[in-house]
Amino acid sequence: xxxxxxxxxxxxxxxxxxxxxxxxxxxxxxxxxxxxxxxxxxxxxxxxxxxxxxxxxxxxxxxxxxxxxxxxxxxxxxxxxxxxxxxxxxxxxxxxxxxxxxxxxxxxxxxxxxxxxxxxxxxxxxxxxxxxxxxxxxxxxxxxxxxxxxxxxxxxxxxxxxxxxxxxxxxxxxxxxxxxxxxxxxxxxxxxxxxxxxxxxxxxxxxxxxxxxxxxxxxxxxxxxxxxxxxxxxxxxxxxxxxxxxxxxxxxxxxxxxxxxxxxxxxxxxxxxxxxxxxxxxxxxxxxxxxxxxxxxxxxxxxxxxxxxxxxxxxxxxxxxxxxxxxxxxxxxxxxxxxxxxxxxxxxx
Length: 349
What we know:
This protein is of the alpha+beta class.
């Protein structure tokens, strides 16, 4: 569940966190719509993992004492795996999806790629990139658009990249792969397995009401569904839409019992309430602060911002970001709150 804010000319991107659901829209449909428009493509079996679980003993009566899930996950190390060393002079390279259409020349996609036909995305212009000079079959052409995945060598020139060597098609092992998110419930499975405590209140309407209740509780972190209970056969039969087969997950930085009571007042299905690393409100505040400054202390303007409520982080991408830029972010927001990454990396020699 990631909320992304892209800057400059970036295409609009999805909201993974479950904000207030539109009137008449089922929560599960909102989640499915968000996932399907994201660059993180979740397989059907995992998509069922997205709703609300309030980590508590399944047999516990509504309002009973919850048992917390695992501690909030440790954010990944931000010591510089995606950053350029402070004194590195270049050359630089980047591997990514390049798109050219009727509205602009070649651009290196720096954020979400809309999986339309042709695809849509945006990012820094590539000065000196020419699709016609590339091998036949290394890119696709659809409705006047050209696109493919390439290795780019160059230097920043303003908010663009000036190529210093010919681009080449990326090999299978060089293509960037987004990590597959896990939406498994962090709570231990209760005795007797996950099951509804009040099947009459395990409905789509109750689920929507639960999402509203959860987000109104101070410290709210994230709401998602774990549908790992659903077998492939049940998915094929349409059980993916059965709230009785959901484990509703809610995380919070506040009081677990308060969150459980709020959700249990309307939701009778399986529930897991767990500890969030940071609240959704805190992460949104950090993201907005970065968006307003549009610099974040990085050496170049930000191209992409994401709220990753699962890890309790805001992730930011800049054209060229150095290790010193990450240190400045840590000083400003606290260690691990913002994870900075660079589009351009030191070129392999």
